[in-house]
Write a structure and sequence with these properties.
The chain folds into 2 domains: 210 residues, no CATH class; 48 residues, no CATH class. The longest helix has 29 residues. It is an all-alpha fold and 275 residues long. It is built from 13 helices and no strands.
Amino acid sequence: MSLAALGALCVLQHIPMVDALVYRAEGAAVANGTDLYGFTVTQWRLPATYPPFAAILFVPTTWLPLGGLKIAFAAGNAALLALLVHLSCRFARLPATPALVLAATAAGLWLEPVFQTLLFGQINLALTCLVLWDLTRTDDAIGKGFALGVAAGVKLTPAIFIVYLLLTGRVRAGLTALASLTGTALLGALVLPHASVDFWTRRLFETGRVGKAWIVDNQSLQGMLARVLHTPEPGPVWLAAAAGVAVAGLWAARRARSWRAASRGACWPPPRRGC
C-alpha cells in the first residue's frame, strides 16, 4: 500500500526522475560513441557527473522504454530499501523478521533521503547496500573490500570507507577495496580512454556539475554553510568543517575498533583472581 501510494503520487505529479534520464543518456553516449561529458539533458540541462565506469554500467538503461525504466527504478529502489533494512538489522544484531523488514520498508519509503532517491531515480540505495554488505562481512571473508571498491568506482563518495578500513587495521580489506577501485578506473580507461582522461584530469574538479551548493536539496555541510552564511561558495569555512568532521569521524572509528578488540580479549564476568 505504501509503495502503491508513492507510485500514484509520482504518476499524478508527473515525476520526471531526472537522474535516471541522465544515467540513460550516459549509457547512450557509451553505446553510440559520443562525448560522455559534452551533453546536457532535461529542461534543467543536467550533465554527466560520474566516472566512465559508471557510464558503462548504465548502458542497459537504454534497452528499456522510458516508462519501463521509471518503473524499474521505483521497484528496484523499494527492493533495495528492504535489503538495506535487512543488512542494518544484521549489523545491529536485531532479528530481521519479514514483518519488521516490510514495516520498516513501508515507512522508510517516505523518509526524505529515500523519498528523494525515488523521485529523482538515483542509485544511492544500491551503493549503500554494496558498502554496508561489504563492511558487515567478517574480516577474514574472501574478497572483503571488493564490493566497496566497485561502489567507489561508480560514485567516488564511498572511497572514504577505504580510508576507514586502513585506519582501523583492516589493511587487507582496504587494499582489496583500493585495488577494486583502481580496476574500475582501468576498465573505464580501456573502454573509454578519451572520456577517462577528460574525467580524471578535468571534470572531477568541476564541482558545480553536481548542482549548486546553496539549494535546499543539498543537505551536505557545504550546502548548510552556504545557506547559513548566505554565500554560494563557503570556501575555506567549508573545507575546514569537512576536514574536521572527517578527522573526528575516522578517529572515533579507530578508537571504537580498538575498544572492541580490547573487550573481546577480556574475560566477562571477571574471575576473582586473574583473567
